[in-house]
Design a protein that fits this description.
Layout lengths: L11 H24 L20 H4 L4 H19 L3 H19 L26 H10 L13
Helix pairs in contact: 3-4
Length: 153
């Protein structure tokens, strides 16, 4: 592709692209001018350290903790089964598993719960079918309800 000279007509899409690139280059120049000269090599931060042992990659693996928990649970189950309390241990461990699974997930500060009683100001999710909506539809029919645009005849 040949470069166009200034007196030739430039297609609009190419002109916009050149303008975009020119502005991008100006932004880069501004950033470097504002940030000042780069720090000398002695002041630059040291690169992150490499793992100190070959076991670090296994310790930091996402499956390490669940596998250790499973191993501990199976060991305790065998211990209690040997002492004839295996079924008691199993029944007690069920609520513990439920409690542990609920503890792992936390809602964000702006994330709504499916149950409006747990939300601030009893805020409901969009599309929630409420008793007020049901009562309104029973009394006045579908045509006079809030969602009449969906059911027009």
């Amino acid at each position: 592709m040949s470069d166009l000279s200034d007196n030739e007509e430039i297609p609009p899409h190419l002109a916009r692209y050149r303008e975009y690139k020119r502005k991008q280059e100006l932004r880069k120049q501004k950033k470097t001018a504002l940030s000042g000269p780069p720090p000398p090599a002695a002041q630059q931060p040291a690169p992150p350290e490499t793992p100190t042992s070959s076991m670090d990659r296994y310790i930091n693996h996402p499956l390490t903790t669940p596998l250790l928990k499973l191993t501990l649970w199976l060991s305790l189950l065998l211990f209690f089964a040997h002492h004839e309390f295996g079924s008691v241990f199993f029944l007690v461990s069920i609520p513990v598993f439920v409690w542990q699974s609920m503890e792992e997930y936390r809602r964000g500060p702006r994330e709504l719960s499916a149950y409006s009683v747990f939300n601030r100001n009893m805020e409901q999710l969009d599309g929630t079918f409420t008793s007020e909506q049901w009562e309104r539809e029973l009394r006045y029919g579908l045509l006079l309800s809030e969602n009449r645009s969906r059911y027009h005849v």
